[in-house]
Write a structure and sequence with these properties.
With about 120 residues, the protein is mainly alpha-helical. The chain is built from six helices and three strands. It is elongated.
Length: about 120
Amino acid sequence: MARAATTTDVFNAIAEPRRREIIGLLNDGREWAVNDVVAKMTIAQPAVSKHLGVLHKVGVVTVARRGQRRMYRLHAAKLKPVHDWARMYERYWTDQIGRIKERAEKKAIDRITRENNPPKPKK
């Protein structure tokens, strides 16, 4: 089965780690020029432009012209389908965190009990 194009939906677009890194960078709410993104990342300008183009095509970023520059801004609302999908699995994380917390608390109580009640020496 052929892989879906990266521009078919937000899931395919964010499957690439560099695009997720760009999303994280744009998460501050301000507009970013391509060169500003390039300066913060370790990839060349053509690659950054290509990644921004994919994210723009699925609506995750918006682009506005400011003179000669193209300014990109995160449109996080387009990530909602990803959030909604991942949310279905949240109970697994919270259950596991609850079990870890219970285990840590039990170990702490056991340690305190041992410290406050040292073994009595044998006669």
